[in-house]
Amino acid sequence: MRNRVRNSARNKLLCGGMLLLSSLMPVAQVATPRSTASLLQDAAQAMTAGKLTRAETDLQTVLRTAPGDYRALDLLGVVRVLQHRDLEAEPLFRRAVQKKADFAPAHAHLGLLYFQKGRADDAVPQLRDALRIDSARTDASDALVQILRDQSKTAAAAGDRGESLTLLREARNYAPDNPDVQFEFGAMALQLSLWHDAIAAFQQTLKLRQNDPVALYSLGRAFLGEWKFEDARQQFAGYVEARPDDSSGHCALGMTLAALERTQEAREQFERSIVLAPEQIESYFRLGLIELNMKDLDEAAMSFRQVLNRDSKHAGALLALGRVAFEQKRYADAIDLLQRAIAIDDSLNEAHYYLGMTFVRVGRKEEADRQLEIATRLEHDEAQHRRTALRIQDGDGGDHNSDPKK
Amino acid sequence: MKSVSKFSAHATLLGMAFIFGILIFWTWLSFAASQNSPLPGRFVDVTEKLGIHFRQQASATSKKYLLETMGSGVALFDYDNDGRLDIFFANGARLDDPTPKGAIPKKDSPKYWNRLYHQKSDGTFEDVTERAGLTGFGYSTGVAVGDYDNDGFEDLYVAGYGRSTLYHNNGDGTFTDVTAAAGVAGSGWMTSAAWVDYDNDGRLDLVVARYMQWDFDDVLCGRPGKDGFRSYCHPDLFKPESLLLFHNDGGGKFTEVAHQAGIDKPGKGLGLAIADYDHDGFMDILLANDSMPEYLFHNKGNGTFEEVGLPSGAGLDSNGNTFAGMGVDFEDYNNDGWPDIIITDLADQRYALYTNLKDGTFDYSTTVTGLSAITLLHSGWGVRFLDYDNDGWKDLLIVQSHVIDTIEMYDPNVRYREPPLLLRNERGKKFVDVSAASGDVFHQVWAARGLAVGDINNDGKLDAVVTSNDGPAWVLLNQTDTPNHWITLNLVGVKSNRDAIGAQVRVSTTAGSDQFSTVTTSSSYQSSSDKRLHFGLGTADTTREIEIRWPSGIRQILRDQKSDRIVTITEPLK
Hints:
The complex is a heterodimer of chains A (406) and B (574).
Chain A: H1 2-30, H2 36-48, H3 52-65, H4 70-82, H5 86-99, H6 104-116, H7 120-133, H8 138-157, H9 161-174, H10 179-191, H11 195-208, H12 213-225, H13 229-242, H14 247-259, H15 263-276, H16 282-293, H17 297-310, H18 315-327, H19 331-344, H20 349-361, H21 365-395
Helix pairs in contact in A: 1-2, 1-4, 1-6, 2-3, 2-4, 3-4, 4-5, 4-6, 5-6, 6-7, 6-8, 7-8, 8-9, 9-10, 10-11, 10-12, 11-12, 12-13, 13-14, 14-15, 14-16, 15-16, 16-17, 16-18, 17-18, 18-19, 18-20, 19-20, 20-21
Chain B: H1 2-36, E1 43-45, H2 47-50, E2 74-77, E3 86-89, E4 115-119, E5 125-127, H3 129-132, E6 140-146, E7 155-160, E8 165-169, E9 175-177, H4 179-182, E10 190-196, E11 205-210, E12 222-223, E13 229-230, E14 244-250, E15 253-256, E16 269-275, E17 284-289, E18 295-299, E19 305-307, H5 309-312, E20 328-331, E21 340-343, E22 352-356, E23 362-364, H6 371-375, E24 380-386, E25 395-400, H7 407-410, E26 421-426, E27 430-433, E28 448-454, E29 463-468, E30 473-478, E31 485-492, E32 504-508, E33 515-518, E34 533-538, E35 545-549, E36 555-559, E37 565-570
Parallel strand pairs in B: 31-37
Antiparallel strand pairs in B: 1-30, 2-3, 3-4, 4-5, 6-7, 7-8, 8-9, 10-11, 11-14, 12-13, 14-15, 16-17, 17-18, 18-19, 20-21, 21-22, 22-23, 24-25, 25-26, 26-27, 28-29, 29-30, 31-34, 32-33, 32-35, 35-36
């Protein structure tokens, strides 16, 4: 894949030569036959016709009389690349850049050459310079975007998602109409819980690639993160329509319907999801939560046991089953289940809350006070965290202390 | 002949059976129809017609001071004992833009005055504010009605920012500011207040909720930048503040005893309600806190309280999360004899309904009663349980609006201005939203805040008065079309406080389940409702038994009271 990209970079160099040819045309029309301009014109035409020797002769002629002619240096560099004499091409491009720092083709060609040689770090500044001078150069932007996407993947694999997002943000600036770049940016923003950015990116993806099911699903997830449940529901409904046999789509749609208090419809989606993928956990868990909230305690317990049969360390299911036991006044069971949930994930404020309330019911006041104190502290921290995240999204670090979702 | 007669008898029996079958079928049809389409209410806006022209002045500034979005409350009470309810509106004050830190706003124009409207014999109202001496002081927030000196005339406590005011009712249509002598001016940002005789000594004490430690600082909240905008700040930015408890020492003097009474746990109090949730004979206090656990102060009966919100299960929602508690009511919605709790909050939080489990604990019942689905996207302030159709079950009236006037820029699914909500109680099991069919007022969007409830025209149907933030007030007359019977009890304490606040009443009929209620003027949001207890009796035209447990401990039973009237009951000597 990477070789194919690099070969295409070699072809782009030729295209660059053709671009140069077209830019020389007006000069040739007014110049004498053997002027520098006409020699450059002739060289460019020869190059595109595959007559590399003739092109080289023309360019050497120019350089003998004008050794610092950046256009000749650049074109000769292209000739060298086409002759597979890359080692000689690099100094030619570099000299062209030195002679005229704002000559975009030389920066682009040097960048493409580096890219072709696998020297991405050297290529990036040259390609950026080329695009700074001439933002319309698709040869440079295509290569740069490809490099940035590659680097983003590497950064993500190394666990540096912030860097990965930064690289994709730049790639998106150079290729705003590339749905793949938009999607990758959205996916990384989603991983970083930057819902606002993710939503914008997925919406752009869908503008460029209508009804893309994966983008629909991802947009739904981003809306869920922002608590925009109705918006999320619409995306997941679109996804389910496009992929009716995907259990995860039904599960996600069920989650949004449950959040919208459309309980019966949510239940149907979870049940459909379970039919499609009986071995899963999530839909059983969500179904159990609906039953728990509706006080169908026996039904809820059955659903949570289905989860625990598949994953005995599912903290959420242990917590929920603990809640069932609490509601049924089986306090010893509740304490056991809630303590097991906390042992797996001690950040579950809800588990501490119910454990505290259970201790109250059995007269263990000190332990109750301790658990309730932990529960309120965790809840407060979580609320603060959510507000901070919203603040960062909304104002790039500015003040935003009026979070409407208290 | 015998056989004919036998045949005839047989035919008659058949005919009777047929008719009986039709009757059963008809009854079933009627029942099914009533189950499918619950009786909506009919509330009519009669504000203009009655001569009410109040408009709350929030004094909005570019600084978006939080004070200017919290609104002011309303009281429904009979200040001149003519048997007709009058209306008192608390009002804001002038805020400068910017207002200097430490400033106490002033009512320097009549538009900022609090207003007292007297109900005339023809049912219309007249503004008697100046004559009554109630123009007010500072930025008024809440109002609480109670006869603190047991002289038979209702007094007024008007909570405010920086200073509150106690007005003694002189009994001649005028009031006197006795704040300084009584020692109840308080301090800080006071919101709701409640009169309650917490030590059952026969004198009403005063509880005053405070919101938080706040001043006119220029705190930038909202979205910064070129396209940014200011918003009201989140309460998390400010420190909590304890409530105040003024013990009535008699002789017009009060002593602030919150610390001694163990009730000074700092909160962010907005709504206050009282009830004896554990039937120990002492009134407990519920404080709706904004964005922190709700507080339930259990009265230990020895002059002190213990805060039990979290351990009782009434402090958080079912997921262990806090919410922005604002309005509150503390009444028995499922007719089991034990006070339950409703607390309004913001969109995406769902109004919290806690069912009393009769063992000192509560169950979060928002989802199972249908409130969750109904209130998901709503933000509520004033709230009251009231039986609008007199069927014997307390329904819910809630007035709504988000707190942030720019909320739609954050969340397009949420609205700043909202219509009120009327929820019908389906036999204590479910609440059904009947707003849409209950009158035009339920289709109007308001920035509502305060809500007081009472039978304004004494027709046996509970009416309501609503205030809005920086806007008008509305008087909503209940004209629900129902043949159901009712009875209203006006309790007069003798050994107990004269208002009988804290008296617990059970009403039974032959037609429906027993009903329970507690005499109080507090609850809702910064408002004070009619102290008279209203009971819908359904098809029963007589009560079987009315049992009153007075705060003094005296138990009184009245039998076979005729319905559809207001009955005054005086506390017996023993």
